[in-house]
Amino acid sequence: MSRGPRSGRAVNLTDGPLLKPLLVLSVPIVVTNLLQVGYNLADTFWVGRLGSTAVSAISFSWAIVFLIITLAAGFTVAGTVLVAQHKGAGNLDRISAVAGQTIAFVIGLSIVFSILGYLLAPWLLAAVGAPPGTEVFELSVTYTRTMFLGIPFVFGFFIFQSLLQGWGDTKTPLYLMLLGVVLNVVIDPFPILGFQDNLLFEVAGLTALQADLYAATGFDGFGVQGAAIATIASRGVGAVIAIGLLLSGRVGIHLAPRDFVPTRETIESLFRIGAPASVEMSTQSLGITLLTALVAIAGADAVAAYGIGTRVTSLVVLPALGLARGTETVVGQNLGARQPDRAKRAVLASAAITAVVLAATSVVIYYNAASIIGIFITGEDAAAVVEIGAAYLRIVGATYVFLGMFHIIQGAYRGSGSTRLAMIFGIIGLIVLRIPPAYGLLVWTDLGATGVWYGVALANVVMVGLSGLYFRRGTWTDGIVESRDRGSADPDS
Questions:
Q1: How many CB atoms neighbour CB 378 within 10 A?
Q2: Taking the CB of residue 488, how many other CB atoms lie within 10 A of it?
Q3: What are the backbone dihedrals phi and psi of residue 8, each rounded to the nearest 5 degrees, phi first?
Q4: Helix (H, G, I), strand (E, B) or coil at 442
């Protein structure tokens, strides 16, 4: 029996119409991202039963864990790009080796991060503002260390998702994510709350069973640490199934033990593509962190408003992020197939869809800004937060079209292997163009937090203009696989 790649659920991206396969590829990514939000909401809901201290503890921890995940996620982008371009080029014999070595490399990297994160957790949490010596700090350390022990399982799913995306299959990762979310929702309450105070039993009308189990075991849960245990368990199931599917060949890519043995050429490619992508992705979280510190100058109400506003923004741009990841794959496969014009058409189609969807969304948000912010906050200070947050949505929301198109163009650069280019524009757009104008408008005018909102909006417009001008040059369309065949040294030139 042949161990070569089979089609599986892969979408044909190099022949025929572009729009339908682009959407078929991208929509599952959007849904997968929404399910990821569901993961986080489930943890927050059940931990919320323990009180505000517990919620604060996982909030501090997420800042650290998310940063580590974004650093490693860049190397999974390398897997997507290499698989996509080799498939487009018809180098099917290379795909299994690239996939296996990507898994081995990223899992190895995750083990290093796991050890360092466990050891450095107290220092890292203190650095992001968790007050040492308090209950919040101790709970944060316990949760963070438990999460770091399970980081290889978390990365296992992300690798699988990225490799299958490069192959052209985004439905299988969606099904696995759905399984993971369902498992997480179901098992979350037990390690967190045990049997003594379990809402799941109450909702199901099983209070007698709850009492019997507690009387028999006396298990009252692990508290905040239980949320990390549930996440690792559900992710672990998904990761094991994912690797099993790859080894079986049922998803198109078929791995054998020899595919996990690293070669210098592939590891160098993973570093060359993945390291800049890691910097680019971590730049997004760094930009939010710097803006939060800047907004803090305007007061606590402004910070609360900014926090709500960024959550709304992250949900609004999910379709653009999904299309950007789909664009990555379409560009990669078509550049591998030496069809740069088709790759460009895919980018333009994604940008047009994004512009239409986000323009309509911006109009709805503009006229309902106060109501949207009001959903997320109540209490005595709610009126001030709503006012500031509504201004954020009206000002920044008016530029969502530009922000979405920027993500699409970044996806095109990543798909071509020009991750250094994407990194440069990420740093310029999310740090250089945002922070100085926002600071100046906050400190040197009477606009207050509104000045920061105008600074962010201005940056959204300018950064898509700069990246779009470079996009028109067309030099990004060389591609990694083609470049190597032609002897070109660097796709970022």
A1: 10
A2: 13
A3: 55, -135
A4: helix
